[in-house]
Amino acid sequence: MTAPDVSLRPLEYRCGNSLMKGYLALDANQSGPRPGIAVVHDAWGMGENVKLRARMLAELGYAALAIDIYGDGIAPRSMDEARAQLEKFQADVDSLRGRAECGLNVLARLPEVDSGRLGAIGYCFGGMTVLEMARGGSQCRAVVSFHGTLTTTRPAAHQSIKSKLLVCTGADDPLVPVEHVTAFQNEMRTAAADCQIVIYAGAKHGFANPFSSNNPAIAYEPVADRRSWAAMRRHFDEAFGLQPDQAM
């Protein structure tokens, strides 16, 4: 089997009047259309973790596009600026969903992508984003949230979610307390969604981001990172109908 030859290159696109700056990862040694995965950044914008994850997905045989939600070169430089962006999009769910779907559509139109097999993953703010995509009826076959917030102002309607959902959350995440997990579970039950929730013991917020700066609430946790990535792979294998010998 030929070793992957993965490249990561900038890809600019527009959502309305905003210029978005994404990054596309592809394996040059793979031919033909392949499933496409949108990767959504955390509250700090387009950082190293989403670029790393796009590369890792390309090594597995996917076409991966790290999509830009903020646009226009916005890159928070302080916790207050990051919080402002988070609260802005929490208050305007239509804009959040629209920008995420805009990026997904850019990915779907690429010649290397099988537009019938799309997925999305996100970290923290990005995890919240991909869940909002699913609540809005996204064409994604599967989405995965890594330590994303679970609350919403627009709960899913009955049978509105078409995506298979995987939610990976930390048992010690102060931003996603157990009552939020329970409320989300009830929301998914009401929506009749295909949803798995995996809770990682000892994991805080940011457990799947090796670039996290440790503080009392946020810490990288390599075991939870490895296990949640493996769970994501199984989730995509099932959603895209891959057989064991086809699994990427």
Protein model, in words:
The chain is α/β, with parallel strands linked by helices. It has helices at 48-59, 79-91, 93-108, 125-135, 178-191, 222-239; strands spanning 6-15, 18-27, 34-40, 63-67, 113-123, 142-146, 164-170, 195-200. The chain has an 8-stranded mixed beta sheet, with helices on both faces. A hairpin with a 2-residue loop joins strand 1 and strand 2 (18-27). The two termini are 12 Å apart. It contains 6 helices and 8 strands; from the N terminus they run βββαβααβαββαβα. The chain has a single domain, classed as Alpha/Beta hydrolase fold, catalytic domain (Rossmann fold, 3-Layer(aba) Sandwich).
- Find the CATH topology: Rossmann fold
Order of helices and strands: EEEHEHHEHEEHEH
- Rg measurement, Å: 17 Å
For the record, the CATH architecture stands as 3-Layer(aba) Sandwich
Number of helices: 6
Oligomer: single chain
Amino-to-carboxy terminus distance: 12 Å
List the helices and strands and how they pair.
Layout: E1 6-15, E2 18-27, E3 34-40, H1 48-59, E4 63-67, H2 79-91, H3 93-108, E5 113-123, H4 125-135, E6 142-146, E7 164-170, H5 178-191, E8 195-200, H6 222-239
Parallel strand pairs: 3-4, 3-5, 5-6, 6-7, 7-8
Antiparallel strand pairs: 1-2, 2-4
Helix pairs in contact: 3-4
Labels describing this entry:
single chain, 248 residues, alpha/beta, Rossmann fold, 8-stranded mixed beta sheet, 8 strands, 25% strand, disordered C terminus
